[in-house]
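Fresh eyes needed here. Kindly weigh in on this sequence plus structure tokens:
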Amino acid sequence: MDLSMPVSPSFAIASRSRQASLVWGSRRVTVGGGAPVRVQSMTNTDTVDVIGTAIQVKELAMAGSEMVRLTVNTHEAAKAVPLIRDQLDRMGIDVPLIGDFHYNGHRLLTEIPECAQALSKYRINPGNVGKGDKHDRQFAVMIEAAIRWDKAIRIGVNWGSLDQELMANLMDQNSRRIHPWDVKSVMYEALISSAISSATQAVELGMNPDQIILSCKVSGVQDLVSVYRELSKRCDYALHLGLTEAGMGTKGAVASATALAILLQDGIGDTIRVSLTPQPGESRTQEVVIASEILQALELRSFVPSVTACPGCGRTTSTTFQELTQQIEMFLRTQMPQWRTKYPGVEHLKVAVMGCIVNGPGESKQADIGISLPGTGEAPAAPVFIDGEKCMTLRGDSIAQEFQVIVENYVEKRFGIPLGNRV
């Protein structure tokens, strides 16, 4: 065993893509080119419902979504977009909006220029812009609108709506090979070829290549990894990652986290979306929370203070530490919209809530602030550690409330802007 060299730490490779910009007013969100991996989401309200959609966009933005996509499928929806933008501006929400177009986007962008102006990016699916000669003409109309209004575009290919003419041509070519590929490999090639050829066509029409983002959405983890690894080799456009139709609940969350983590670790991907089917009554913001947690787990970004907590075992039959962990996590996440500006850097805070004496003190010392609760049969005392040092011991029925106050005071002391430096 060679102990002469240290174990190398693992880290995600940096993406080497072009940089696109989504702009609204003074807000500029960069994608790719060394920018942080961005989180985005999509509304599931009827876009025609101006107030309901604006409220959901606000909720998504407050949860951490840095751009929000809207369905723009009818003239009524297109006419609602500038009204939604106005409502958001009135609420002080400057998150850029993305228009999701299929089939009739060329008409909507042309006939309702206010919609084209209010959006910051257009999502174009090359499989749904027309067939035959109409495809090129209608695609060109959408690119011309992006050029005219200086907007970014995402050429988003989806294997559920592939260009059937392209797929047929590739299948014909494959049949003439001495050793034909399997059907899945042909489909991979169709996805990648559709995205890159559409981007090439857009550039030939005058589109700034820096303002082009590509995606090739599939619903299988290994399929997504295969497609994006090859796509990243063939182009340097910024890439949007996400499983399409990922599913509901733990299935959708686990599949998305698995696929995105593999690619992001390899330096592939510049903006992500976790496409969850919401469970009944579940907030749409859950997909934003999961996307943020994926990036934070990979140490690519920090969004909220992290809470380390043990899973519990036979030594911790009480639910006290579970309840305290839940309260602290909810408290920190609820405070973050205000804390981001009030306490710069607070997202890097590390908190530990441990359930017994075995690992409790050690984990608590490693955190910025931690508490080790008494396990079953242990003395009813909870030592609190701040910056690695034991500073006090809490006892009684109000440990949770007292610890929350300690956390608040620590945040104010460590991250608060001195009065003399406040603007």
Observations:
- Residues 211 and 382 are 54 Å apart (CA to CA).
- The first helix runs from residue 50 to 63.
- The chain has a mean pLDDT of 93.
